[in-house]
Amino acid sequence: MKAVILLSGGLDSATVLYYAKAKGFAPQCLIFDYGQRHRVELKKATAIARQAGCPCRVVSIRLPWGGSALLERTTRLPRRKTIDPGEIPVTYVPGRNIIFLSFAASFAEAAGARAIFIGANALDYSGYPDCRPEFFRAFQQALDRGLKAGVQGKRIRIYAPLLRKTKAQIIKLGLKLKVPYARTWSCYKGGRRPCGTCDSCLLRRRGFEEAGAADPLVKEAEK
């Protein structure tokens, strides 16, 4: 079965790509260039899709109104020692998953795909409202009622297999699936090496530590 994979180049989305392949889906990757400051993830995502042997499309969009530290370099990235999921940080991009999933649904319907995979997580995450189970339930209802495929009984289903997993559980799953984590990128700051202090770096580091595994990206960056 054809599936559209939202691939950012990060740890979670790469794991979802390999998970979908392992489940017998035929993935087509959708990568978004939305003006993010960590543009290095675009090259990483393309490389991951290529290594997985999956076709990919890069869609360029712009959010000229900003509203996020990931879009505005004048807004400082948070440097938090602990992450409170009840607090929505400045790295939240307004409506990002709504936008991405809308594009993915249009692509899936046009391509005859019956599944959309997204690497969202609601346990070890930064508190974004569009990464929570209630959001995905609501969006699934919107697709069921708002797409030709949905009203004709050919439902396009949203899969978020990592939603209720810890980062350590995700990493353990990815290691079993042989996800090339050295090719992934998590840091919000971008640059040649991970900053190690942004929320995404903190969650990644804690995940590898709790999984009892070394992060190959850190090893690669230290060379």
Strand order of the largest sheet: 3-2-1-4-5
- Percentage of residues in DSSP E strands: 5-15%
Tell me which CATH architecture applies here.
3-Layer(aba) Sandwich
Query: How many structural domains in the coordinates?
Result: 1
What structural category do the secondary elements indicate? alpha/beta
Q: Which sequence of SSEs, written as H and E, runs from N to C?
A: EHEHEHEHHEHHH
How would you explain this protein's 3D organization?
- This protein has eight helices and five strands, in the order βαβαβαβααβααα.
- β2, α2 (40-51) and β3 (56-60) form a beta-alpha-beta unit.
- It has a single domain, classed as Rossmann fold, CATH 3.40.50.620.
- With 223 residues, the chain is of the alpha/beta class.
- It has helices at residues 11-22, 40-51, 96-111, 133-146, 148-151, 167-177, 199-211, 216-221, and strands at residues 2-6, 26-33, 56-60, 115-117, 157-159.
- The model has no long low-confidence stretch (mean pLDDT 93).
- It is 39% helix and 11% strand.
- It starts with a strand and ends with a helix.
